[in-house]
Amino acid sequence: MNVTSASAEEVLDQLGSRPQGLDPAEARSRLARVGRNEVERVTGVPLWRRFVGSFTHFFALLLWLAAGMAAAAEIADPGEGMLTLALAIVAVVLVNGLFAFWQDYRAERMLAALEHLLPQCTRVRRGGQVLEIPVAEVVPGDVLLLAEGDAVPADCRLLQSFGLRVNAATVTGESLPQGKSAAPVAEEDVLHSPNVLLAGTEVVSGEGEAVVFATGPRTEFGRLAHLAQTGGGGRSPFLEEIARVSRVIAVIATGLGASFFLIGLSVGLDLFGAAIFGIGIIVANVPEGLLPTVSLALAMGAQRMAQRRVLIRHLPAVETLGAATVVCTDKTGTLTENRMTLQAVWLARNRTAGPPEQLLRPELPTDRRLLAVARWCQSLKPKAGGGWLGDPMEVALVEAAQRLVPDMPEPALLGEVPFDAQRRRMSVLRAEPDGPWLYLKGAPEVVLAAATRIATTTGDAPLDETARRAVEEAASGLAERGLRVLAMAARPLGKHDCDTADETELVLLGLVGLHDPPRLGVAEAVAAARAAGVRVIMTTGDHPRTALAVAREIGLVTDERSVLVTGERLHRMSEAQLRLVLSAQEIVFARLAAEQKLRLVRALRTMGEVVAMTGDGVNDAPALRAADIGIAMGRSGSDVAREAADVVLVEDNFADIVAGIEEGRAVFANVRKFMTYILTSNIPELVPYLAFVLFGIPLPLTIVQILAVDLGTDILPALALGAERPDPDVMRRPPRPRSQRLLSRGLLLRAYAFLGLFEAAAAMLAYFVVLRTGGWRWGEALGPHDPLYLEATTATLCAIVVTQVVNLFVCRSEERSAFTPPPARNPWLLFGLAAEIGLIALIVYTPWGNVLFGTAPLPPAAWLPSLPIALAMLVADELRKAWRRRRRTTEADRGHRQVAASSPG
Fold first, then answer.
1. Which residues are listed as membrane-spanning (predicted)?
2. What's this model's pTM, rounded to 2 decimal places?
3. What percentage of the chain reaches a pLDDT higher than 90?
């Protein structure tokens, strides 16, 4: 059934209804057949399964295994501290699992926002009587009675319209209220048809009657709800990378643990001893503090973004925003203010265009009459506390007229013919002191057709072909600037001739151009994004000419090679053609439907892009969720858009996205810094176990002492690295490619094969110095509670902490000096350093620390062996950084010389 082209009578007949509405019994029967008018829930993974899954992924299972083995060891040999180890590992698994579950749980709240957007009750005519019924009981064939302020509960076809205008921005993306009429039209797309009202839209003015043809999931709103629930984009690139890091580390730890378990058996250890040895290897290689530290670092990044008016709803989005290679942005309310202003006028009296304040002279009769049309030809209602309710274009005209002529007396309203989509004009009859006047405004071509004269400096003149061409050229010129153009006309009526329907023999007074200005700072933000290698693509439901004009104004389009694609053209494109279009540097998409925004996101992701999508309406929700990162508007955005998004802009300012990108890039760099810091300590934790098996010495480091480093002394310094400020050049580099690994070969080599070897040497040196000083001889056994053994393992632990103190500064940058910028610029660094030193002091020099971690108080001399090695580690890494900086400078100079050599002339 084509509801748009059929007459009202035909639509009623096809739906089995009539002007008096459905019979109540028939309405109940249809409700039983088609179901309630509600948004359909898509069945997903049950909440309990997602909860369990947060604690049963591979990394968690590995830790559960280690905890189980530790508990078994405690049962077999009580009092060895294995119970403490088991409890500590279980705590790590629980903290990580609860955090992961909370991230996933947010999706459950999205549908509630969709349901609340729809009205709860509506008025229908059934059996000739007007009833108010719950929206959920509306069925196809019901005749709805709609008036100003009503929300439309279902998709319906207008039967009668009396000045009806509807705000459909949340569903179609249109920036202004649209006039509606009941007449049949050739337009088959219900999204833009002037005789169709869509569920979830709102009546701005007028009233009408409409027959319902779709309810619940069959409405356009229901389709959007379905897309919003099923259009998820999967895990963010950062989460995928963290999962990969977890898998790599887990595989390494498991392999080494199993291998050394077998080695332990082969060198004569009993089954229990070999099991403890295997657990130690696993615990030494699994950085238990990594996931909590990542979570806390992301939370700190989210806090810094909040200070820059960017709210993070989904913590991994902190880093994902920094990885974005493409930002797809809506226009209205995102790049622009969604507030119309009178930007220009074209005066018929002297054929001149320019700003209204400069050209309009209220003392001139023709100009004063044009201002009277702007002020009184409207259907606005006063807003409590000041301002106006109604069409933003009319608000802009009234405010401009009030600004130019503050004391304009209001003439009595004698009659009105409201605006509608078919007439494309509005007229009012006002009782002026010199008699009644007809004031009219509308589309230029419509007003030109009704006008016969044009205002001049010497009075009215016939509107000949030359004058008509001048008006048409002026209208085109204003439209090319992206302005909404209206023509203003008027004519005096006789005292007894007060027929407002007689919109003929008009005098054309001029044209006005209205503008939705770009937000402050948007042009600079677009330029900054381009400098950072991030493409900005406009994706709007608005008119192509308006979209292109705004794109030029903000610098998004700078040359003739830019591409403008309408939704209609996009519909005809194949996937290969779309990918070819998306490879252009400057692209504007206009008149897009929700599915098309979703298609763009999926196509870009297929091309390997990391996609950020901004939006504010219900129609944007599916694409927001499908993107790598969804960005919703905090002020103008709908609840649905905010629930679907990962990030919310508090001030709806596109410029804040650039600040978020900078912070996001800093987060990725900082995560690499503290990963290097955390992984470095794995080597001095692993080497003692190798020495224990290969050389038959007493175990230099216990498992509980490993946890003292991984979950104690390392945590706050690692967080301090996560709080480092962005590198000054971070926004002058392109985004990191999706293929770039967090756990790269270079990072592993630096942590394990370079810095870690220094730390292992310091740890083993401190261990043997204490043993030799205490009189130990090679091959001599030491009991786990022997004072010399406790002191020696404590020296090993302290040496690791001392070298990690130096490593804290070493890991501040991969290339810059450890002391650039000065450490004092990051208060967290000094706090983490103090916390690390304070915690090791408590572990070593307090009775409860000695009991809990198997330590003993150290004499000052036991700290000295690790200091020269720690200093050597710092010097060696400074030399490595200097070599890298010099190599990078050399490569850059070589590149400049090659460019200069290849340049003509």
1. 58-76, 82-102, 248-269, 275-299, 674-697, 703-723, 747-768, 788-809, 829-848, 860-879
2. 0.67
3. 31
